[in-house]
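Retry 2 of 3 after timeout on previous attempt. Resubmitting structure tokens to design endpoint.
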């Protein structure tokens, strides 16, 4: 199986529980097709560089995925249909990093300062 990194941007008016529900739905799509989500990072509600479908903010979520290509194509098809997902990007990678991403580290340090 191949390794992928995927970032989704969900609508700003979703509650955190709805974002978690969206994450679990995407996880179930991948497990049905023989894949799995290795690591998930919720980057929280962030400002967008430009408006997307009248939204100025979005919930960012990063997934590290280990799945076959058929599972990824189904995963992306479901995200195109889902109205809660504003944008997504999935890239094939060589290895999954065990360290947290830069945005996850920055959001943790901001919470510590407050």
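Retry 2 succeeded. Sequence:
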């Amino acid at each position: 199986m191949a390794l992928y990194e995927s970032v989704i941007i969900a609508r700003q008016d979703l509650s955190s529980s709805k974002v978690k529900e969206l994450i679990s739905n995407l996880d179930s799509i991948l497990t049905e097709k023989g894949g799995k989500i290795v690591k998930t990072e919720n980057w929280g509600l962030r400002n967008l560089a430009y408006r997307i479908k009248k939204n100025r903010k979005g919930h960012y979520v990063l997934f590290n995925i280990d799945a076959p290509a058929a599972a990824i194509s189904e995963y992306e098809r479901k995200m195109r249909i889902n109205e809660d997902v504003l944008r997504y990007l999935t890239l094939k990678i060589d290895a999954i990093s065990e360290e947290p991403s830069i945005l996850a580290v920055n959001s943790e340090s901001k919470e510590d300062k407050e």
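Attempt log closed. The helical segments are 16-32, 69-81, 102-113.
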